[in-house]
Specification:
Elements: H1 15-25, E1 34-39, E2 43-48, E3 52-57, H2 60-80, E4 88-92, E5 102-106, H3 121-137, H4 161-173, H5 181-192, E6 202-204, E7 213-216, E8 219-223, E9 230-232, H6 246-256, H7 260-281, H8 286-301
Antiparallel strand pairs: 1-2, 2-3, 3-5, 4-5, 6-9, 7-8
Helix pairs in contact: 3-6, 4-7, 5-7, 7-8
Length: 311
């Protein structure tokens, strides 16, 4: 299958690239089998032997996210237990075969949540809400030690109004994809017009979509890909729950017990991220674009679901 190129400046990599890097930097691993283990929008993954995972960033910008993970993840493991988080075991540096930093982690057994892997969707939603609460309660680094932790999803909604409006306009110009764009734009506007968040900043995973969760024995087992780790307002953290089935979403909302303004801003963020991803990835990664469209469809079909002020 042809490898998808998603971004300008992307650096191709394959199993041979991994083997070359290992020969240079970890020769004791160079003889282990290397098998492609999927690719996200930021990284390519390769299983190394039975117990390791190699991640190679797609671009120089994404390499910074791996460095951030290596610095902060060791302190996150105890906070999110019993859920697993990635454990870095090697900080790869640029080599002859690949010009960027890269990482090796312990392999975590599991599969993304889906009809064949989850035994109780309500339990998964409740467990995810618990993980979010635990992460948001973790102590923050001092203000002077937060370099690189300013992710855009931790900012005020209004700061993103320009580009979100532009993406919604792109969707309209391309035919709308069968979506109710006036309704979706209204959901975005309802969040933007609220007062800015007034609570303290918290730790944020930044991208809790289903592909960054792992299920084992039917239940939530791990949270992975902390490349979007940031410190900021918590609203956007709740947005990816719209990617889960309705039973999981409802259990999440009940367990999370969010203030209504936080919920409204989370719903607006769910619109924003999907509306940005759909036109960008339509040709680059049709499968991911379909996930964005599915989220927008869920939002327009159930716009009041989870509303703490609703019936």
């Amino acid at each position: 299958m042809t490898e998808l190129i998603l971004h300008e400046g992307e650096i191709p990599a394959d199993a041979a690239t991994v083997r070359a890097l290992l020969r240079e930097q970890r020769p004791e691993w160079a003889g282990l089998p290397v098998v492609a283990a999927g690719a996200g929008t930021d990284n390519r993954m390769f299983r190394l032997g039975d117990g390791l995972l190699v991640r190679l960033p797609r671009t120089a910008e994404h390499a910074g996210a791996l460095r951030k993970e290596r610095h902060w993840l060791p302190g996150m493991a105890a906070r999110l237990a019993p859920l697993r988080v990635p454990e870095p075991v090697h900080a790869g540096v640029p080599g002859a075969a690949f010009p960027l930093d890269w990482s090796v982690y312990r392999w975590i057994e599991g599969a993304p949540p889906g009809p064949g892997t989850v035994s109780d969707w309500a339990a998964l939603g409740t467990a995810l809400a618990g993980a979010v609460r635990a992460l948001h309660a973790a102590p923050l680094p001092a203000a002077g030690g937060r370099a690189g932790l300013d992710g855009y999803r931790g900012r005020e909604l209004g700061l993103c109004d320009g580009w979100v409006g532009q993406r919604l306009a792109e969707l309209r110009a391309s035919g709308g994809d069968g979506l109710d764009l006036p309704l979706l734009a209204g959901l975005w506007r309802a969040g933007v017009e609220l007062p800015a968040p007034s609570g303290p900043p918290v730790w944020l995973h930044g991208d809790l979509k289903p592909s960054n969760l792992l299920v084992r024995d039917g239940a939530l087992h791990a949270v992975i890909d902390f490349g979007g780790l940031a410190v900021g307002f918590p609203d956007a953290e709740h947005a990816p729950v719209w990617d889960l089935p309705a039973t999981a979403r409802r259990a999440y909302w009940q367990a999370a017990a969010l203030p209504r303004e936080t919920w409204l801003r989370a719903r607006a963020w769910a619109v924003a991220v999907a509306a940005a991803g759909l036109p960008y990835y339509r040709e680059r990664d049709p499968a991911f674009a379909a996930e964005c469209r599915a989220r927008l469809t869920a939002l327009q079909q159930h716009p009041e679901e989870g509303d703490p002020g609703g019936p």
